[in-house]
Amino acid sequence: MSFARAALVPSVFALALAAPAHGQLAGPADHVDEAAAVARGLYFTGPFVRDRGAAGVIDQLRDAHLDTAVLDLKDATGRVHHDTAIADLEAQESGMFGDARQLLADLRAAGVRTVARIVCFNDPVLAVNHPERAILDGRERHAGEVWQSWGTSGGWLDPWDPANQELVLALAEEAEALGFDEVQLDYIRFPVDDAREWAVYPDERPGVGRPELLHDLLARMDTRIDIPIGVDVFGIQAFHPGDRSGLGQDLELWTDHVDVFCPMLYLHSMSAWEVGTEDRARRLVERGVRSLRERLGPGPIIRPFLQAFATGADEWSPRFIADQIRGSRRGGADGFLFWNAGAVYGMVQRAMIGPARALSPFPVPEERREARTVGFGG
Q1: The model's pTM
Q2: Section 180-188 average pLDDT
């Protein structure tokens, strides 16, 4: 996997987007552009892009002194925001990106790195439209019905189904063809909420483990696209090796094909973590990132998703934002991303001109630079 095309171009806010002056990390096979490795950014929804366009994304990033936009190519409601050539998804097109190629060209011209978020198996629309490809309900009174997740309140596609795997691969190829710098796979997992005991997987293959199934999917993706592959993973996965919860996410196994790991380290989602102690947000992020770094080694990029919303925060303030960035840096992350479901980032912007101003970009230790010259990921 090559990171060459991920380099930032000069822009009107180049100083805000500048990476540390260590040069480019290059090796004989794979090489990592350092600006890509230390990327810092925000997540943007389809409706935000529809209403504000490329200019709105650029303004938000400029005001936050960040450089990367995570954009929903396919979101958790099943909507596809670009003009897709995938027949099974055409009915789910929203049109919110308009001319997607022009959108990405405008962002690139302003020096913005673009990451295509692809929601993989959580698809409440396609599961209903094609129940033969869905996880089914195993209860007798619901025989033949599409299983409903209690966590996401909708149906899921069966990860074992080859057609569903091909759908994810085809979306990644479309992301690259459109001009995205990186793909970010979300919900690349099995559901594990309390309704899972009734979940039936029609295409399950005896003798094949869930982590091996998803690893094979990532391996095939690695042969079909040349841009970096990133994955979003539960925050709890940062603390524990292997696949203890049945998600199918064995991060150590995935390192030969995944370039960027994005653990979602939110106090909101891990509300019971060290309740009553001080500085929880910083310590949660720091310990999660450090644990993951110790397990995965210096090669992979670790770029956590941090919390940019008030729910569950001990203190909703610029300090809360800065503490999470500080935790990322101390734990050994390469960069960071912020998540707000409505793409509202005023607090992040306040933090980045206040207590977080001098915290990033993060330095790249020599150990990581050397590891990346010999290749990692796909």
Answers
A1: 0.91
A2: 97
